[in-house]
Specification:
There is one protein chain. The chain is an alpha/beta fold. It has 2 domains: 223 residues, 5'-nuclease (Rossmann fold), CATH 3.40.50; 88 residues, Orthogonal Bundle (DNA polymerase, domain 1). It is built from 17 helices and 6 strands.
Amino acid sequence: MKKFLIIDGSSMLSTSYYGNLPKSVLFAKTDEEKEKHYGELLHTSTGEYTNALFTMLKTLITLYKKVSPDYAAVAFDVSRDTFRRTQLGADSYKANRKETPAPLKEQFIAMENILQKIGCQVLMDKDYEADDFAASLVKKFESPDLETYIITKDHDYFQLVSDYTRLWRVTDKDKVKDMQQRYGLYAGASGYEMLPAGIFEYTSDIVYSEEGVYPEHIVTLLSITGDPGDGIPGCKGVSSAAAPLVNEYGSLDAIYAAIDDCENDKKKEKALSDFWKGCLGIGRSPLNALKENRETVYLSYQLAKMKDDIAIAQTLEDFRLRIDKAALKEILTHYEMNSLLTELKL
């Protein structure tokens, strides 16, 4: 069966950058102190930073060898001021993210150019995030005849997992080992040998086991639990009740319909809270919190949901992976990545 590899390029390059920093930069307490040690980052003889480029290219080469994808796409973030801020007015969305360091900014531009030059499709736009492009690609091309794999470290991609789309989540090797043991995934298991080191494959059942809901309900779950890392507020104090409520009602509208049916009648509201406690195992009733934070919860839903209707002009065939080896050799030579030249025998 044909394989389509969708890569969260921003996630991979950032992970590559921070995973290949000298200790002097990694443990510096201030930005000014970090900048003093930028010269210790891996760089070419002409001063071009390569610590993230080298690590990501090495990862991509490993993926190419192990997976042999027929099609590939790499999506990047361009700006934090996407439609979630400009249209939804969510100024808090990802507002806690630090400014991208100058050496990483430089390598973002370089990596985007490198991928395009060697023949890999790159998707990015100032109005959308990488995950919006991933969702739109899945929506357009997902089928029983295509194995789709999404590579990222971000958990919000759980919402894209299905029978035909798997999430390859990047994490540390100890976590991968623990997850493999927990779910009985050992060498010889179907597809196990294809997984690169530091990556765990999430299916719908594993998402349910880990998160308490199936992928199609992840967005509803996040709208209640929130996600502090992304600036998604959710509904404070309701996290433990979120999964039982989502599994019982299936949607925010259904949850709020049950609340509205009480018509602010205290007896009806007590009966609903008793039902939640007795049948769903919810100890502390979230009813008042959900009522008070309705607007925020619905905004959180919009923030958490990946936009899956971006117009993708390319056909599947346009994403066919045809590596230009001459261009790749020229790029690796330019960036003085001799070990990769040797590994690829270019």
